[in-house]
Design brief:
Blueprint: E1 8-11, E2 21-28, E3 37-41, E4 46-49, E5 55-58
Antiparallel strand pairs: 1-2, 1-5, 2-3, 3-4
Length: 63
C-alpha cells in the first residue's frame, strides 16, 4: 500500500449495517509512502491507522 498526504483512505465494513469509514490522509509515517498513516476521518476524528486488507487508498487525480 502506498499513499501521499491528501489521498483518501476507505475502510470497508465486513459487517452488515456498519458504515464504511473514509478520511483524508494528513500524514504518512512509513517509509516511501507506506503505513502507518495519520487519518482525519470525515466525522472529524483523527487516528493513526495501520490499514488492513479491508482498506483502500484512493489517490488524488494528477494535476
Amino acid at each position: 500500500m502506498h499513499a501521499t498526504v491528501g489521498d483518501r483512505l476507505q475502510v470497508h465494513s465486513a459487517s452488515v449495517g456498519v458504515k464504511e469509514r473514509t478520511g483524508e490522509i494528513i500524514e504518512v509515517r512509513g517509509a516511501e509512502g507506506g503505513p502507518p498513516y495519520m487519518v482525519r476521518f470525515d466525522d472529524g476524528h483523527e487516528s493513526l491507522v495501520f490499514p488492513g486488507p479491508d482498506s483502500q487508498v484512493v489517490h488524488l487525480p494528477a494535476e
